[in-house]
Amino acid sequence: MLLRLALMLYRLPASLASLAAIGALLCSGCTNGVASPDLEGVDVRLTVLHTGDLHSRLFPYDMVPQYTDVELGLDEENGPFGGAARLATLVKRERQRAGRSLHLDSGDYFQGAPVFNQFNGEVEVRVLSELGVDAAVAGNHEFDEGARNFASQLEKWSTYSTLAANYDFHSADDPWNSQLDALINSHNIFDLNGLKVGVIGMGNLSSITSIEEADNSMDVDVRETISTVQHYSAMLAPQVDIVIVLTHLSLEDDIDIARLCPDVDIVIGGHLHIALDPAKVVESEVVPGKRVVVSHAGAFAKYLQRLDFVIRDGEVIAHGNTLFPIDAAVAEDADMLDLLDDYARELSDSIDLDRRVAHTTERLRRFGPTGGDSPLGNLVAEAMQYRSGIETDFGMTNSLGIRTDIQGPADGQELHEVTVEELYNVLPFDNTITTMFLSGTEVQELFDYVTRRSTGRGCSSQVQISSARFVMNCGTEQAEQITIGGSWTACERDDVQAPDQDCNFPEICSAGRCGRPVYPSESYELATNNYIAGGGSGFFVLENNTTQIDSGISMRDAVEFFMLELSAGGTVDLNSAYPDGDGRISPKF
Questions:
Q1: First and final CA of the chain: distance in angstroms?
Q2: pLDDT tens per residue across span 87-104
Q3: What is the set of domains in the chain, with CATH numbers?
């Protein structure tokens, strides 16, 4: 009868209620003795709690939930959202409700809020340890303060297993790489009352240039994804009942692992901030009839994901998935609050996070509606270029360095106050402004690279610029009609005031207000951030420039200063100053 019930559930959509019935009925699979039970032929339940891409959101924060978040259970009236103390409450509750369980984190718990800038990841590692995380993959942002810092924080505070099978530290000479070689393992085996679970970690590769080339260099060799997973999963398969691959790659990579690696049973991933509900089921292309579960848990501590599996003789025969929203309806765990209390006080004493610098009447977006420039991107680029002591011919920053929109007013309110804390969320990286001189030929090479890089990302511009303009031709993968100089925002405002004056008129362009064509032999001074100036995100056209000067001026501080300048002593409505993208980057297909 029990076997018939399990088979019926396998044919129907799995639910947590059904799986709970299996767990209650199949007593021989429960953890009720000191000796490991014989599980051959027995249906066993495994619960995996999954977090990922926490990005230092250890304290509750305000946001306006977007459509997907609302669909997944986040309601604006239940803010603020996230926070480690609320997450801890859910983790403790679900572990108490489960039998055999693992808590796996898919990486990037560093970077994204002021607590990281202040304490360099110490708090995040302590939080994961307090949560009882069993294993975490090494995300790319774990290296943002360098390999030495990551090694130090793990050595001091970590109680969990850190995994990355595709990072090879043996070729590195630096002592902290040897430290990481000892601290980061390819895999781990967990014995859960007789159920043996092998977990393989796969670190990020799409951002590996930032790990190798920027200030956070760890000089690591990387291994190809599929062959690495196939190697370790084949090695683990005879030793364990189930093989889980814990990744910080992408959903596409996770699906490829599920399709092509015969010994993999479950893939739990992160990096792209996707929340899957229900979890995806992928048909194996190498094992007929095998179906592999692929899950992602979202980002910024908005959800805890619970995955339940019924396993019989090394096969997943049923599964269920629940995403628990983390909002003000969840009580805060006292032990986690106690851990965070001293850090919160020191952070408050060091940075006035509540200070207001501007306001919005609607959301100020970091991505443009056409894939070109965006209102927030234009603001950031101009803040860098026009900063006192910088004042270059044009400015540029990478789009993905702007990590979130500036929020709009909540329901029933007319204004949203922009605070210093929100600027940390928008620009969490401690990047500084670097200046350099480029020839006209190098400007063309720079924008050609931007176009090629953007073409591979749906012709969505990977940079934001100021006092420059170009057509991003994603058909030819070349930049066209490049001009440098002038304030496009000011020019557009002049157009509104005097419609008979068009930026294309020679008398306007000759005044330099709307820029002029780029000439190969002329020199143009650029203000950018030190990350892409050092070759990050593949900007090698800038990396070897010998005229670079790092100003030491923080991008974030420049943006704050710019907002205060715009406000002239009050607070400025950013939407009136930057209503939309103004066409300085025009995608062409």
A1: 61
A2: 999 999 999 999 999 999
A3: 47-313+323-345 (3.60.21.10), 354-588 (3.90.780.10)
